[in-house]
Write a structure and sequence with these properties.
Elements: E1 5-10, E2 21-27, E3 33-38, E4 41-45, E5 47-49, E6 52-57, E7 66-74, E8 77-81, E9 85-87, E10 92-94, E11 98-102, E12 106-107, E13 113-118, E14 125-130, E15 137-138, E16 145-148, E17 157-166, E18 170-173, E19 179-183
Parallel strand pairs: 10-18, 12-19
Antiparallel strand pairs: 1-2, 2-6, 3-4, 3-7, 5-6, 7-8, 7-9, 11-13, 13-16, 14-15, 14-17, 17-18, 17-19
């Protein structure tokens, strides 16, 4: 079958001006090449090691904002395109929230876990990130809690959260501490 590509930011989250992050693309096949697009503009053939290619954004500016995706080519033919990855660059004015997980960061498969993102500022919302995923989970507004029931091996990984308020303009917090969830 045709290969698929995943695209994600490492570390995830809204990036402050001057900050840095890396766009990662992973394909199960490794003999081709990767090309990164921003909108319809071809940006780069990516630095590649095996089935993974990376593009670093350092000293981010508002020009780096936008929608990116990755194409995987073999012999000049595009075999796969990734989902779109939205990159946001905003001033991070709010203090960083604290991420915790109950019952603990090591659980057995099938257990229920709850992530709690605690912000000192009454925020309107927080996002939970799992490194390697292009989509974030919006946490419930009331507590900033996110319940994950019947966790599986695939839920293992590095989590973080980031909160925002809506006033005249949306204000963002820095990204929280990271937590590694291990599903046994």
């Amino acid at each position: 079958g045709a290969p698929t590509i995943s695209i994600f930011l490492k570390p995830p989250g809204v990036i402050p001006p001057g900050g840095s992050t890396t766009i990662c693309c992973i394909c199960q096949r490794s003999y081709g090449s990767f090309v990164l697009y921003k909108g319809s503009r071809r940006l780069h053939t990516l630095e590649q090691s095996g089935s993974r290619a990376e593009f670093s954004i350092s000293n981010a500016t508002y020009k780096d904002r936008g929608t990116y995706n990755c194409h995987y080519l073999e012999g000049g033919t595009v075999l796969a395109r990734s989902d779109e990855l939205e990159v946001s660059v905003e001033e991070l004015r709010l203090p960083r929230p604290d991420l915790s997980v109950l019952p603990g960061h090591e659980v057995t498969a099938g257990a229920d876990v709850m992530f709690r993102c605690t912000s000192t500022r009454p925020s309107t919302g927080c996002y939970l990130y799992l490194e390697g995923q292009s989509r974030a989970q919006l946490l419930s507004r009331e507590q900033g809690d996110y319940n994950l029931s019947h966790v599986q091996k695939g839920d293992s990984g590095r989590y973080s959260c980031q909160c925002y308020t809506i006033n005249a303009s949306r204000e963002w917090s820095a990204v929280s501490n990271t937590l590694d969830l291990v599903v046994r």
